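Structure ticket #2291
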Amino acid sequence: MSILLFDLFGVIARKQSEQGCAEIEQAAGVSGAGFWKSYWSLRPPYDRGQQTGPEYWHAVAQDLGASFTDQRIADLVAADVRSWREVDDEMVAFVCDLAEEGVRLGLLSNIPAELATDYEQRHPWLDVFSVRAFSCRIGCAKPEPGAYAWCGAAFEAPASDVLFIDDRTENVKAAEMAGMRSHLFTSLDTLRVALMQAFSADRRRFPSGLAAAAD
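Resolution: structure written out below.
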């Protein structure tokens, strides 16, 4: 194991907050389970870059039997981006420390174009990832096999050299099917332990930050 491939949302960045979801509902003028069913079920083409933000929200409106004005759609795109902006500062510091120790890092995220651009503009720490696999740019999204194959090709390394870290079971299982090792993320503490074990099993010197955490 010589490469760590991280998920973004739910691992380094936080999931949508209740306030963020409420702002999306307010921008839409629609709320409830039916709204969120449309939001999520129609998301994959948007994540893959097959739709723009306005095209995605027009599809949501149609699925709901509603009609959104251009201004409402612009407001929805903006509210959606804002809802995903919070990051876990401790995790950001952790991956930056790993990079400073010389660990090869990658990022594999299901993320639409507007949100990817927002993150790149606001978060210079993304530069620690030598491979940045944003679904909207690689044309496939987790847990599709192509997403993991794209990362392996970008790293120019065997899949077995990669340890994939994600908070969703289906994504972790798909990585294993692609030949990668995996860790189902629940907390930074459990991740530290898993990485220490992985480095030790490979007889590699594990980063000093991990060693310090075990003391």
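Closing remark: Residues 29 and 97 are 43 Å apart (CA to CA).
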